[in-house]
Amino acid sequence: MSLIDQIDKAKVPEHVAIIMDGNGRWAQQRGNQRIFGHRNGVKAVRAATEAAGELGVKYLTLYAFSTENWSRPKSEVDALMSLLVDTINSEMETLLKNDIRILTIGDIGMLPSDVQLKLSEVIKQTSHCKTLTAILALSYGSRLEITEAIKKLIAEHQNGKLSLDQITPELFSSYLYTAGIPDPALLIRTSGEIRLSNFLLWQLAYTELYFTPVLWPDFTKEEFYKAVIEYQKRERRFGKTSQQL
Ligand code: FPP
After folding, report:
1. Ligand 1 shell residues, CB under 6 Å
2. pLDDT tens digit string along 69-81?
3. Residue 228 and residue 159: Cα distance in Å, rounded?
4. What is the pLDDT of residues 147-183, one digit of tens each?
5. How far apart are CA 58 and CA 134, in angstroms?
6. In the chain, what are the domains?
7. CB within 8 A of 76, min separation 6: which ones?
8. Which are the catalytic amino acids?
9. Confidence bin at 189 (pLDDT 50/70/90)
10. Is the pLDDT of residue 244 over 90?
11. pTM of the model
């Protein structure tokens, strides 16, 4: 039986988040510059997006650039920013054809102005698309996101707009970049690293975690299916007992 046939279409995770790791190692293994790995990583972005769309996943969040990634060599940061703009340019038609909406999360104001402009353009042009929402985490850091949310809450409390007993976990979620987006049901991290690296710390509270040694440029649709198959074997109890489910 092929991998896709092993997936129960009625139990597909609504939101899949991915830490796309291992581009640099993939390139180095081939005696190439790290950017060669990032360029090949774009193929894997396409594969994951296609697989998500076919299965009926509604939200796909991709960790493309973290707040910590700003400390990489300038040449790598610049190359990643150009790659992002080039990819948006080359994929715009495909996004529209496949009804994929683009959103971003992160400290977008930190990105170079041409990247910000390109992002605003793709967000606007795809705003009517409904099949899949692809969320690019760019200059994203969960601790920064949480800190910014707390600052907004305190300011509103001090202005008398918000009382302390109005502050609930649900309200707090609505102050994050991910407001209105359901929490990920499944997190995938490639390249064998087993950590969260400041990604969606609040939102991943009850997410199923899937780690694979596959390096991101080698991630194919089949690898995505394998993660979903593994997810479907898990029992999501949310603190309850098996008998209560
Ligand atoms: C992690 O691998 C990958 C990144 C920091 C960048 C991810 C970017 C892309 C896949 C391309 C552009 C993205 C989009 C959405 C078009 P690493 O460099 O940390 O690899 P290493 O751990 O082996 O060094």
Report:
1. 20-25, 34, 38, 41-42, 45, 62, 64, 69, 80, 83-84, 87, 136, 191, 216
2. 999 999 999 999 9
3. 46
4. 999 999 999 999 999 999 999 999 999 999 999 999 9
5. 8
6. 9-141+183-233 (3.40.1180.10)
7. 34, 35
8. 21, 69
9. very high
10. no
11. 0.96
